[in-house]
Amino acid sequence: MGRVVMYSSVSVDGFVADGEDRPGPLFDWLTGGDVPLDDSGALTVSRASYEHTRPYWDSIGVTVVGRRVFDLADGWGGVPPSGVGHVVVVTRRPEPDGWDAGAPFHFVAGVEAAVARARELAGGRVVEVAAGDVGGQVFAAGLVDEVRMDVVPVVLGSGRRYFGSVDAQHLLEGPDVVVRGDRVLHLCYRVRR
């Protein structure tokens, strides 16, 4: 069974977006380098960031997001982001009106059911869980194996927290990986069981 990884870019003060769901400069590292990260050529990163990020992206089978992220991204136009095979959306609401039922998106109520469905769909590959409210719920439920974060040198001051509303102490190992990119620090921690 593949690992469940909670992931996002994050400010040094722990936010994945400001109070109006805008990431601000959190993704600037994805366009500030000279090495293409994807086939579009729109994403260019430093060599160190490429060598860290590309293998991880290639290992992802399914991404789990909340309905807020899905709506903000306008459902990615029915095409999962970054070449991921499937997206599982944690929501109690139905698909949007006119949604293509054949798109590889799965609408599931509750984080435990969403992770179970994502594991089925991943076929042994990584299940990525977007950090934030849903990621924090998955983390608090003890379903996350690894925490990955791309720490960007900015202080947002307030907004959407990386761990959502987690309000209890949880210990992590490591960090197991520390990679310095251009204007980003890539960190990976295993979750202590």
TrEMBL record:
SUPFAM superfamilies: Dihydrofolate reductase-like (SSF53597)
Gene Ontology molecular function, alphabetical: 5-amino-6-(5-phosphoribosylamino)uracil reductase activity
Any Pfam family: RibD_C
Gene Ontology biological process: riboflavin biosynthetic process
Domain of life from the UniProt record: Bacteria
Residue ranges constituting the Bacterial bifunctional deaminase-reductase C-terminal domain according to the UniProt record: 111-170
InterPro entries on file: DHFR-like_dom_sf, RibDG_C
Annotated protein name in UniProt: Bacterial bifunctional deaminase-reductase C-terminal domain-containing protein
Organism: Actinosynnema mirum (strain ATCC 29888 / DSM 43827 / JCM 3225 / NBRC 14064 / NCIMB 13271 / NRRL B-12336 / IMRU 3971 / 101)
Organismal lineage: Bacteria, Bacillati, Actinomycetota, Actinomycetes, Pseudonocardiales
